[in-house]
Amino acid sequence: MATQEPSPPSSMESNKPGFPKKILGNKLEDKHLCNCCHNILRRPFQAQCGHRFCSYCFNRTVSNGPQKCNACIKEDIFEDPTSILKQGCAFPDNAVRREVENLPAVCINESCTWKGSIKEYEMNHEGKCEFMIIPCPSCKERIRFNEQERHNERECPERTLNCKYCKEPFHFKNIKAHDEICPKYPMICEGCAKKKIPREKYVDHIKFCSKFRTPCRFHVVGCDISGPPGPPASVPLPPPPTLPPTLSVSTSFTPLPSSVGAALELQLHSEKTKVAELGRRCTELEVKAGTFENVVCVLNREVERFATTMEASNRQHKLDQDKIEALSNKVRQLERTVGLKDLTVAEMEGRLREMSATTFDGVFIWRISDFAKKRQDAIAGRAPAMFSPAFYTSKYGYKMCLRIYLNGDGTGRGSHLSLFFVVMRGLSDALLKWPFNQKVTLMLLDQSNREHIIDAFRPDLHKVSSFDIKLVSDLSICDGGHCLHVYEARLFTCKVSVAYLFLIRGSWF
């Protein structure tokens, strides 16, 4: 018996297991629980073994092919194949679904006072409760649903902000690092005390600021002299000390400009800023690469699961095709058997009709129905001749029948009605005297009982020599067939709307 194919669940049904048990406001019954997730049934399906499952749980269970019902195993009622879960073996249990949806429910979230039915909970409250605890997608901290916006804007340490100077986004925890490399961050000149100089223009400013004092390039070794920035200049050194006549030393020294050190330090700081920016970008790219790797891993698992599902579906499809082919062969065999039975029944019905019309006293009355239609068929050539059922002279006597041409035969075609007497092959021919030489009387009955047409004859034994041995065919015309001709004008004086009757009487000596 074919099972009903379950309708495919909607997207809302396919990704959710059963309802949590805590939402029920009264006592929980076992018939309302899923035998897979053990929660309250959501869109219940009933398997052919009688156990119920959530739509999501059942589809997840059979996604990798047929599985054994764990509930049947646990209850020790496992029976193959009834306890095998597979696609197409379960149907939506709408009666239990209505029962479950009408059960009273309460919200399981703390401080929430919502009450209603499970159907109302699913449609209007589930996933929308303001007191629902959810994890922050950035910092993973658990917060209430109605506090999510405030948390994302003020409290989340992983929240993203936009710099108020350069408008570039950055994480809140990196705010100090960003201030140190922000090209638009406002700086104060130490010489002229000018404020709000963007960092990217600070180097250009101090090159031309007259009050800025650049430290000596040897300040790292103790020189504390500073001076205004400017182009390189040669500073004369004091004369060397007087040495003994036996030793002569000559020294020349050209100091570097005092502004070069500051420029180099600023350039170094700028390079460090660029390096930090590149490091930050590399970190972001590494995070993105890690995210993409996780996505690729998830997709690979989905592809593998899909391939497994497809393989199971192909196997099931092949089994179904084999079953369909076997059933088709069986149907064709049954059709052939039914056809043979129909032929046998038709043959038996024909024999039954023949036997019901058969006589064994040598007298036969032939009633022809729908005479006018059959005569038109004879005139058109569709059925020129008709044969009567067989009859016998006795139970083991000669087998005979009549043949009639309603539009005439031979010279009588179109003007006469031709009637022939036919001797047929019978089962008792070996016991009979041959050739056939009995007297035959043919009579066309007038249904108004006024005038009958009668003709009688004996076969001419000199014209048919085959009777000396045996009958050579199922239909043998005695004496070449004796014809009773009735003129057309004479014929239509009878009532043609009513069947005609023929009486054939054989007289035996």
From TrEMBL:
It is found in: Cytoplasm. GO terms for cellular component: cytoplasmic side of plasma membrane; cytosol; IRE1-TRAF2-ASK1 complex; receptor complex. Residues 125-176, 177-223 form the TRAF-type domain. Residues 361-509 form the MATH domain. InterPro entries: MATH/TRAF_dom (IPR002083), TNF_rcpt-assoc_TRAF_met (IPR012227), TRAF-like (IPR008974), TRAF1-6_MATH_dom (IPR049342), TRAF2_RING-HC (IPR027133), TRAF2_Znf (IPR049441), TRAF3/5_RING (IPR049440), TRAF_BIRC3-bd (IPR032070). GO terms for biological process: apoptotic process; positive regulation of canonical NF-kappaB signal transduction; positive regulation of gene expression; protein K63-linked ubiquitination; regulation of apoptotic process; regulation of MAPK cascade; regulation of production of molecular mediator of immune response; TORC1 complex assembly. Residues 1-21 are annotated as: Disordered. Residues 34-72 form the RING-type domain. It catalyses: S-ubiquitinyl-[E2 ubiquitin-conjugating enzyme]-L-cysteine + [acceptor protein]-L-lysine = [E2 ubiquitin-conjugating enzyme]-L-cysteine + N(6)-ubiquitinyl-[acceptor protein]-L-lysine. Pathway: Protein modification; protein ubiquitination. Keywords: Acetylation, Apoptosis, Coiled coil, Cytoplasm, Isopeptide bond, Lipid-binding, Metal-binding, Phosphoprotein, Repeat, Transferase, Ubl conjugation, Ubl conjugation pathway, Zinc, Zinc-finger. Pfam families: TRAF-mep_MATH, TRAF2_zf, TRAF3_RING, TRAF_BIRC3_bd, zf-TRAF. Residues 1-14 have a biased composition (Polar residues). Belongs to the TNF receptor-associated factor family. A subfamily. This is TNF receptor-associated factor. It comes from Astatotilapia calliptera.
